[in-house]
Design goal:
Elements lengths: L1 E9 L8 E7 L3 E10 L5 H19 L7 H22 L7 E10 L2 E7 L3 E6 L2 E5 L5 H7 L5 H6 L19 E7 L5 E5 L1 H4 L4 H10 L2 H16 L6 E9 L10 E2 L9 E4 L6 H5 L5 H18 L2
Antiparallel strand pairs: 1-10, 1-11, 2-3, 2-12, 3-4, 4-5, 5-8, 6-7, 6-9, 9-10
């Protein structure tokens, strides 16, 4: 495989960043995950962290070097994440269970697979057009489906971010399985939270992701969304790739996995320990962060078997 990949998350105007992201790749398979945590402080972050770390851990164990059934892998992985989050809440006797959205994609054999829960989105951009996009699990999207709102009205609706489906809720999540689409040279795949897609138009996404590599386009889109969000800006996160035709070696900013061994996997993710806002918080001690990290690791060890 050969691709260019970039990921970035920003705090926005919020006190803390509850978004989490990761990508992981073997010689013949690539996983990307974005999660948007919800809940009391140091709980939404934990829900999102469990989700990205557990999916990455499962991928590392099962990508040998490909995932046998990508859609089933994501669906089963999301359910394990839900159980791990719910178990965390029970162990801490939390009155409000931490929750998170998740969108995940796998690329292997030149084919894109995806699934999601909530309103974090996946976009596939080809020839200046969005040719595939996830459907938000929100009340506003339901109104669009019923013909009560147009797609344009939905993008401006004040309640567009109220969702009914997530990991960690009292009810089992409905993991919506996406399509199975062969990728073409030059395609761009973007996974992002509502803080990002809510601050830019689809036309801007199409223009930037077609005209520029993700290394440049994604920071520019995050800048635009952050400025527009102003003092109410949500956390913003995106993971994107430009897909390239197979080549023996990487060139420029692209990656080639050809030389990786069957069991070799590379993973990049953001953690609680690397969250600057958490470290500087007066409400959360280093001991709190360390305890949360230990809890996350215990959950991963338990549910990644």
């Amino acid at each position: 495989m050969k691709f260019t990949i970039f990921q970035e998350t920003r705090q926005g105007a919020r006190q803390y960043n509850q978004d989490r992201m990761c990508y992981s790749y073997s010689r013949d398979s690539l996983l990307m995950v974005v999660a948007d945590g919800m809940g009391g402080h140091l709980h939404g972050e934990v829900a999102a962290q469990i989700t990205v770390e557990l999916l990455a851990e499962l991928f590392q164990k099962k990508a040998r070097p490909t995932i046998q059934n990508p859609h089933q892998f994501i669906a089963d992985g999301c359910m394990k994440c839900h159980d791990a989050i719910f178990n965390y809440a029970a162990n801490h006797s939390l009155l409000e269970t931490p929750r998170t959205t998740v969108v995940a994609a796998i690329v292997q054999d030149g084919v894109l697979y995806w699934a999601h829960v909530g309103d974090s989105r996946m976009y596939l951009v080809r020839n200046s057009q969005v040719v595939a996009r996830t459907r938000d699990h929100s009340k506003v999207q339901q109104m669009v489906d019923m013909g009560r709102l147009s797609a344009a009205e939905a993008e401006r609706h004040p309640e567009k971010n109220k969702i009914y489906n997530c990991l960690g809720s009292m009810f089992p999540p409905e993991v919506e399985i996406g399509g199975k689409m062969p990728l073409m040279d030059g395609d761009t795949v973007l996974l992002c939270t509502d803080g990002m897609w809510g601050g830019v138009t689809q036309g801007e996404l199409e223009q930037m992701l077609t005209g520029y590599p993700v290394l440049y386009a994604l920071p520019q889109l995050l800048d635009r969304a952050e400025v527009r969000g102003g003092t109410h800006c949500d956390n913003l996160t995106g993971v994107g790739i430009n897909w390239h035709e197979e080549d023996d070696v990487a060139s420029g900013d692209s990656l080639s996995t050809r030389k990786l061994t069957d069991g070799e996997v590379t993973t990049r993710l953001n953690t609680l320990a690397s969250d600057k806002a958490l470290k500087e918080s007066k409400e959360v001690t280093e001991a709190d962060i360390e305890a949360a990290i230990n809890e996350i690791q215990n959950a991963i060890n338990k549910y990644s078997r």
